Amino acid sequence: MTLAVKNIDTFYRSGQVLFNLSLEIKHGSVTTLLGRNGMGKTTTVNSIIGNIPCSGGGIYYNNEKIDGLRSFQIAQKGIGLVPEGRQIFPNLNVRENLIATAKNYNSSIDPWTMEKVLELFPLLKDRLRNMGNQLSGGEQQMLAIGRGLMLNPQLLILDEATEGLAPLMRKEIWRQLEKIKQTGISILLIDKNLNDLCRIADYHYILEKGRVVWQGDSETLMSMPDLKERYLGV
């Protein structure tokens, strides 16, 4: 087991957002968090990476309790984040964005390097000297994913992986995420494109008002239109 979130509660000031929430991510698997906006998906991510403290329960990474650690310490354990909105450095060029996060905390024998990232995302090869704010949305997302990989994580979290991207760019991102999965990295995905998610994901959790209301595999989820309409429909 790569990650285990066990019965956590999370608050924003005095308001509770997550309620007794539990989930597991197995080594080498792709797991998703699903649900309408405002149901606690990003709060779950922020709890995992240490941006928001959780109350009660615990978060375990490779059997080590990590809740209570600071975000940079959690990153050093091997958890990488591609945040919602990408948040690349606008005043750094593509090359500088990539090398700024280059680490190999877990001493991988085949680490992610800038060359490997550019092989995965060849569109970035011609943009190495372009500043972050000169890239298209799709190119920025590729760069954000590449920056996350340069940490050489064992678990990569993507919050809204293809939000706001053109269809062709979304297709490219999904294609490359499939390749990343094949390297053995565990992935936690948040996205609204259910068909694409179900094609690459092994397991899903649906959140409703900060609680897990359903969990299961892709085949089961796609066979339950009432469930999708109730919790995922607009």
Report on the structure:
It contains nine helices and eleven strands. By secondary structure, the chain is an alpha/beta fold. It has a single domain, classed as 3-Layer(aba) Sandwich (Rossmann fold). It has a six-stranded mixed sheet with strand order 7-8-9-3-10-11, with helices on both faces. A hairpin with a 2-residue loop joins β5 and β6. It starts with a strand and ends with a helix. The mean pLDDT is 93.
End-to-end distance: 34 Å
Number of spatially distinct domains? 1
CATH evolutionary superfamily: P-loop containing nucleotide triphosphate hydrolases
Overall form: globular
Provide the CATH top-level class: Alpha Beta
Number of helices, where a helix is a run of at least 4 consecutive DSSP H or I residues: 9
CATH-defined topology = Rossmann fold
Over all CA atoms, what is the radius of gyration?
17 Å
Structural class: alpha/beta
Average pLDDT level: 93
Could you say what the CATH architecture is?
A: 3-Layer(aba) Sandwich
Multimeric status of the protein: single chain
Give me the secondary-structure topology.
Elements: E1 3-12, E2 15-25, E3 30-34, H1 41-48, E4 54-55, E5 58-61, E6 64-65, H2 71-77, E7 79-82, H3 94-100, H4 114-120, H5 137-149, E8 155-159, H6 167-182, E9 186-190, H7 194-200, E10 203-208, E11 211-216, H8 218-222, H9 225-231
Parallel strand pairs: 3-9, 3-10, 7-8, 8-9
Antiparallel strand pairs: 1-2, 1-4, 1-5, 5-6, 10-11
